[in-house]
Each structure stands twice: as C-alpha cells, then as structure tokens.
Amino acid sequence: MINFDFDSVCVLSGAGISAESGVPTFRGGGKSAVWKGMPFDEISSAKMVKENLDEVWEWFDYRRGVLKECEPNKAHKALVKLEKTVDDFLLVTQNVDGLHTRAGSENIIEVHGNINRSRCVVCRKRFQMQSHHVPHDPSKCDECGNKVRPDVVLFGEMLPSGAYERAVEKASGCNLFIVVGTSALVYPAAILPEVAKRNGAYLIEVNPEETPLTAYCDESLRGKAGEIVPDLVSNLIA
Ligand code: APR
Question: pLDDT digit string (tens) for 166-199?
C-alpha cells in the first residue's frame, strides 16, 4: 500500500483493461488472436497494408463490429475518477478501441492510434468514422481520391510523432506509475514503466498473470482490472 503523497500519476493500459468489456486480447490466456489463419501481427502490419489493404480492412471492420457491443467497464471508469482527483495525470493507452475516451478520460495519448479513424495512404488526410460503422466509410480520400487505411500503428511502423516523446516525458516525471492489462512485450510503449521506475516512481501493475515487468514492480496486483482498479483508485484517493 502507498504511504507517500503522490501528485503526478501516469497510467499505461493495454488490451487487458478492455477484456471485461468483451474486447479480445492479443496474447495471454494461452491463445493468440488470428485472422483466417494469419497471426494478428501479420494481418496488422505495414507489409499487409501494401500487399492487401482490402484484407486489412476486413480484419479491422470485423474488430470494429465486435466493438459495437462493447462498453467501458469499471476499470475504465475508475481511471476517470483518478484523473479528476489528481492535478497531474496522464493516461497512455496502447488500445485503439476508444473505450477510455467513451468512459470520460480526457488527458490521454493513444500511442497506437484509434480504430475509428482512418487516413489517406497518399496525402495522409484523416477521417473520423462513424463509431463502429461497418464497413468503413469513407473508402476513398475526398481530397485526392486515393484509398484510406486504418489510422492505427501497425507492426513495423513508428508511433505518431510527438505522442511517444510526450509519454516518456510524463513517465520520467511522475511519482506513481500504474500499468493495467498489458503483456509488456511491445516496444516502445513497454519501456514507459521502466523509465518511470528508473526516475523514482512507485510502480504498480494490475494483471491476472505475471509479465516481464512484474519483477520491477513495487506492487503487482494479481487479478482482473475490473475487480482491482476500482478498489485501487478508491484507496489512492481516500
Ligand atoms: N484485467 C487485466 N489484465 C488482463 C485481463 C483483465 N481482465 N485479461 C487479460 N489481461 C492481461 C493478460 O494477462 C495480458 O498480460 O492483459 C494482457 C494483454 O496482453 P496483450 O494481448 O499482449 O495486449 P497488449 O499488451 O495491449 O499488446 C500490446 O501489441 O498487438 C499489439 O498493438 C497491439 O497494442 C497492442 C500491443
């Protein structure tokens, strides 16, 4: 339990925080998301966008359809409560499902983009799609007529410029860093908790399973986000 005053909190969330909302995770639980026999890191790759953009859209439109039935859960909502209580708060999410924003999070960086945004493959104009409207619309850029692609960071691609740098700056300056629902295997996002710890932050992890981060944590709370995060936040702001 924390016995110091913290005034700057940074949170890193992964697919696990949305699991109880019905959004499948990528790893963990002994299975891995596949699409027509293709591992997710192959279908969600820059290479596939070049080779078969229609197939990439089929995968993303399928995921957007699944999201139609998904609502933010108690863990998403608890982080909103924490954000409203702490003066200096930043939520960095690897998730593209938009559930944090729908729950009410405002100070948020979506380091892997958002599944309900697309962008032109040539002029990079961005489009906000109707939430979970399937199939994706527009299919073509209204500026230059070229195809659009999901505005999501795919394997083999860089993070949105500035987003990562802002996240590192926050992580190195916070005194409490909370990691929720990530396998901590995908960089550079997974480096943030290590940056925070190296700069003196108290590091708490919430995950039903151990991860490569567990050994670095001051507390590793074993269990589901929806069950643990609300109590954790209540204790923090009491
Ligand atoms: N509550 C908390 N954590 C959970 C829950 C739950 N209910 N259910 C599963 N988890 C944990 C799993 O134990 C696992 O450690 O969530 C983690 C999910 O890991 P991944 O599926 O690897 O998701 P994530 O860490 O977000 O992946 C990072 O990889 O595929 C890319 O771009 C994609 O953003 C994603 C990135």
Answer: 999 999 999 999 999 999 999 999 999 999 999 9
Domains located in the chain, CATH noted: 8-22+71-112+159-237 (3.40.50.1220), 24-69+122-152 (no CATH)
Tell me which residue has its CA closest to atom 16 in ligand 1. 16
In the structure encoding, which two tokens stand for residue 55, read together? 């197939």
Q: How far is the CA of 186 from the centre of ligand 1 (A)?
A: 10
What global pTM score does this model have?
0.95
Ligand 1 in contact with 74 (CB < 6 A)?
no
Q: Where are the alpha helices (DSSP H) in the chain?
A: 16-19, 40-43, 46-51, 53-67, 74-85, 99-103, 163-173, 192-198, 225-237
Contact at 8 Å (CB) between 182 and 16? Answer: yes
Give me the mean pLDDT over the 38-57 stretch: 92
Burial of 158 (0-12, 13-18, 19+ CB in 10 A): exposed
* Rounded Cα distance, 109 and 71, in Å: 20
Residue 63 CB–ligand 1 contact under 6 Å: no
Active-site positions read: 112
Cβ of 76 closer than 6 Å to ligand 1, yes or no, is no
